Amino acid sequence: MEKPRKSVISGGKQFTPSALIVAGAFFSAILLGMVISVFTGLIGNHVGLLLALPGAVLMLLLFFFSRNFLFLLVILFRSMLDPVFDTTKFTVGGGGIGVGAVVNALVIAIALIAIFQQPFPALRYLRNTWGFFLAALLVAIFGAPVLGGALKINWDIFSYAAIFILPFFLVKSRADYGKWMRVVLWSALIPVLFAFFQLATGRGYPSQTDEGFRIQSTFTHPNIFAFYLVLMVSLMFSVYKGKLVALSPLVRRFFPVFMLVLLVLLLFTKTRSAWAAGFAFFFFYALLLERRLLLPVILLPLLALAIPEIRDRITDLTTGNERILYEKLNSYAWRKLMWTSGLEWMESTRYLFGYGLGSFKYYSPIFFPLAGQSDFGAHSVYVQLIFEAGAAGFMSFIWLMLSVIRRLRALFPVDRVTAVVMIMLIVEYAFFSYSDNVLDYLSFNWYFWFVVGAGCALAAVERAKSSDAGDFPPPPSDAGTGLPVSISRVARKGP
Fold this sequence. Notes:
- It is built from 21 helices and 2 strands.
- It is an all-alpha fold.
- The chain has one domain.
- Helix 3 (67-77) crosses helix 21 (483-493), helix 7 (131-139) packs antiparallel against helix 18 and helix 11 runs parallel beside helix 20 (442-465).
């Protein structure tokens, strides 16, 4: 007779495989019952939470068995999931948590596993670009008025860095770059369709009465959708004019129409900073690379001013610039008053490291005369960083922008159009950051930093091919490297 196998638990009884299965099923049933009882109590009136547990389980299974496919799905569908994730949130420790937090954690985990398996050159690149900024934000956690809020801000921004570095495991050639950029562009399909649904039904964003009808599509605010549209238009223009992404003749023929559709939707967001950034993008592209486009680039905005709502949105900035009695300030004047109030309220001892992450919103009812009982975000990344992380946070953010631009310059010998567009993306982001809470817009940031990271990864690959190879060797080929190779295989197949 065959002897029973040795115990898998030191000091316990001998168990056969069938006994292990029975015992595992028994304890799993007990654990599942406990989870369901707790989960049912959390659901309350949030019907969306019914999808949270199976959704989280499915993503965990994909994480363990097919991380490559999971990441592909994230890039393809994250643009439409904000409304879905909002319905799965429940309150824990004074903050909201849901399936979105699980996705964030999985993306960061994918990046950490990739770096652990293949630390260089990605780790060095991450240190030389994001290192100072992430360190400044970690310091800014200490002294934060609300620790939970500070940790969430830090967690979100760490996910941006993770998204930025993952292309170094994906983009190993120009073909890989092109295929992943097509995946990013496909992500716009559902948001664009939903935006047309809003236009057709008149179900736009519940804006203030003086703002008129605005659309936000699958995003939580029109401004986020507008920034996403500017990113997509810029990327589409790069694909259309550049030589790095292959397009079929039929798609190439209709690409200008696609871009025009996105620009029309951009008008209906009524986000002035996005309008200005879009105009600046086309203007500087025409000025630097294709001057025959200068005239239409200048004339088209003038034609847009013939639309009454567009004209009113622009001329609104000419009124309400002073706080006189009960006269209402326009949105820009309101922002400037808040920025001035916050910076003048700061103590000199806080100039270096600030008041901690999340502190601007926390203290705004104290220093902002128009706050009332509300707490407002800074509506400016620069003011937010100066207030919350001091000069260290502000200067490290500027370093991040400049260091990325420096590395993108290596694309000029490869494709001047792509190089100019990538650098202009950084300029657009810097422009958005002047007058909005851009660091809070997770979905937009994921797409932005993935596209920019892909550009930097391609620049590193091309630089390594040149005779005077730069800082980094080319990413290794498929040779049993685990996660990075498995993801890259998906990239080669395309969406």
